[in-house]
């Protein structure tokens, strides 16, 4: 690994550790390994994948503990959670986008682009009898580098 890449990862790990300790979490070896795992991952990780990597280093770790940590880190904004057809996955949160935001997700390279614009604010025809408490909105497609002539836009997923 190149030195420059190394320091980018170290900074990402420190940033995650910092948020955890700001929220009064004890920085255990396990949480440090977790932060490094996500900092080094180029894409999304499922809870199972995280568990499998952590378990190699921290024997006796339970899946429940890993899952609870993932959910907690997601609530703190350290990680973000995404729902894919093959299940829920996590990745490092968009730094500097702590507030509510959405994403453009590349189906080929797992790159994500934060979208500060919230489409909900522009929905005017919601039924009045329904009390909305939350929403999800992600846009899937191909980034500039991954665009191929046969990667046609997925109309049914993209349309609002
Ligand atoms: Zn984000
Ligand atoms: Zn891409
Ligand atoms: Zn929104």
Automatic annotation (TrEMBL):
Keyword entries, A-Z: Cytoplasm, DNA-binding, Repressor, Transcription, Transcription regulation, Zinc
Domain of life: Bacteria
Pfam families, per the entry: FUR
Listed SUPFAM superfamilies: Winged helix' DNA-binding domain (SSF46785)
Entries under InterPro entries matching the protein: FUR (IPR002481), Fur_C (IPR043135), WH-like_DNA-bd_sf (IPR036388), WH_DNA-bd_sf (IPR036390)
Subcellular location: Cytoplasm
Protein's UniProt keywords contain Cytoplasm: yes
Similarity comment text for this entry: Belongs to the Fur family.
Protein name as it appears in the record: Transcriptional repressor
Organism per entry: Paenibacillus baimaensis
């Amino acid at each position: 690994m190149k030195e420059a890449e190394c320091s980018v990862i170290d900074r990402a790990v420190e940033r995650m550790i910092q948020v955890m300790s700001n929220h009064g979490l004890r920085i255990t070896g396990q949480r440090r390994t977790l932060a490094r795992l996500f900092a080094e991952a180029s894409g999304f990780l499922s809870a199972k994948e995280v568990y499998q990597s952590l378990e190699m280093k921290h024997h006796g770790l339970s899946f429940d503990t890993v899952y609870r940590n993932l959910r907690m880190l997601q609530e703190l904004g350290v990680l973000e959670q995404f729902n894919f057809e093959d299940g829920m996955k996590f990745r490092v949160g968009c730094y500097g986008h702590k507030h509510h935001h959405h994403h453009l997700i590349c189906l080929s390279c797992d790159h994500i682009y934060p979208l500060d614009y919230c489409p909900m604010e522009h929905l005017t025809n919601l039924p009045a009898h329904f009390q909305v408490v939350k929403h999800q909105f992600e846009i899937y497609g191909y980034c500039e580098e991954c665009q191929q002539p046969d990667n046609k836009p997925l109309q049914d997923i993209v349309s609002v």
